[in-house]
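Dear support,

Our group has been running a series of protein-ligand predictions, and this particular one with protoporphyrin IX containing FE is the one our PI (initials K.S.) wants archived with full inputs and outputs. We had some confusion internally about which version of the output was final, so please treat the block below as the authoritative record. The input we submitted was:
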Amino acid sequence: MTLFYSKALEDKLLGPFFIHELGDDMQSEEWVDHIDLLADFWLSELNGENTYIGNYIGAHIKVSHITQESFVIWLKLFSQAVNKVYTQDIAEQFKDRGILLAKEFQQVLKIKGKEWIQTKRKTYSS
Ligand code: HEM
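Confirmed final output from the archive:
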């Protein structure tokens, strides 16, 4: 999580979304809480543990101007981070679920784009 967010913060397209909601200091209480929340979210997504209670789609409705391109970058940085941190098996599970969730977000947030997710998993394997 920390690796992903440090890269996301540096990214010129993704960074401003997070800075706007949480600031640019990853040591701050907001950030520490956010990263804890996301760790709980992923534990519940991948292990079926009952660790996350929240409205993750709703949390993004207020993040205005998310575009299809932002999701492509999100997925790229997310995939690079999990490839570095986890064994291949686990990284694949994160990436598969990340792709599904990102697709769901796009549909619910009604973001349209021409090339969205013909993104095969391979695209993100390096
Ligand atoms: C362009 C893509 C994305 C951007 C810019 C983005 C940005 C954000 C921001 C700024 C927040 C904090 C909202 C707040 O606390 O006020 C947030 C929360 C969150 N995001 Fe994302 N996000 C993106 C994609 C995703 C994806 C694909 C997932 C899931 C795989 C995800 C999962 C979450 C979750 C679980 C939360 C916490 C929701 C809660 O408060 O319960 N995000 N996101």
